[in-house]
Specification:
Length: 250
């Protein structure tokens, strides 16, 4: 029986002879019987030539290029709105552990809104945000959606813009960064990567306008994402219906 050689390997018993006529060991005989007289390499490949192992390994290897392309494509399709929704779901899971939010005052000091003011809130988001009572009601709605930090961040930026003392500006800017920009904060707001880069550069020398780009992005997010749902919410509808009844009674 002739034994095929492995590529690059010559068994010691075949150094001086190509044909082995002695007894076949039991374990070797079993392998030859199963393989039909083929070598280990041929039995693995099914075709001989020592290429079977390589073919098996390649068939199990994932297509790295295709996988990377899909990941890059998926990442490029992410939007701030989607990130906001994921962050909102995470907030629901850990809201019981968020004790810092409870220490924040519930509302700004303001007078009770009139019926006309309440109606104006539905005309534009700008009119709602200009009115202290409107901001309080909208903030109450955001709390039900676990996104109250968007309004808190916007208000903190407005307060920073009014500050003229340099040391106070640096202190407030550092506090805003730790509360709303840091990824370690439970009140982190959703921002694009380039906005975060701008903030990180500006934080080297903070000014009252350090968070201007971030504030505009959060304002736009509240306008496009939260404001439409606010107008159809029970919170706003109860105010409009209550105002209508009060007006008719008077």
């Amino acid at each position: 029986m002739c034994l095929r050689r492995r590529s690059g390997y010559r068994p010691p018993d075949l150094i001086h002879a190509q044909i082995y006529t002695g007894p076949i060991p039991a374990e070797r005989g079993g392998e030859l019987a199963m393989g039909g007289g083929r070598s280990e390499t041929s039995a693995l490949s099914g075709t001989g030539g020592g290429r079977g192992v390589t073919t098996t390994q390649n068939s199990q290897r994932p297509n790295a290029c295709c996988f990377c392309w899909c990941c890059c494509c998926s990442c490029s399709c992410l939007t701030v709105r989607n990130e906001e929704e994921r962050r909102r779901r995470r907030r629901r899971k850990r809201i019981s552990q968020d004790t810092k939010m409870d220490a924040i005052p519930n509302c700004e000091a303001c007078t009770k809104p009139s019926v006309e003011e309440i109606r104006l809130w539905s005309q534009s988001f700008e009119k709602l945000m200009r009115n202290p009572a409107g901001r309080n009601v909208f903030r109450e709605f955001l709390r039900t959606e676990y996104s109250e930090e968007n309004m808190l961040f916007w208000l903190a930026c407005e307060d920073l813009k009014q500050e003229i003392n340099k040391s106070a500006v640096e202190e407030k800017a550092r506090s805003i960064y730790e509360d709303y920009i840091s990824i370690l904060s439970p009140k982190e707001v959703s921002l694009d990567a380039w906005v975060r880069e701008v903030i990180n550069r500006k934080m080297q020398e903070p000014t009252p306008h350090t968070f201007e780009d971030a504030q505009l992005q959060i304002y736009t997010l509240m306008h496009r994402d939260s404001y439409p749902r606010f107008l159809s919410s029970n919170i706003y509808k109860s105010l409009t219906h209550g105002g209508s009844r009060t007006s008719s009674e008077s």
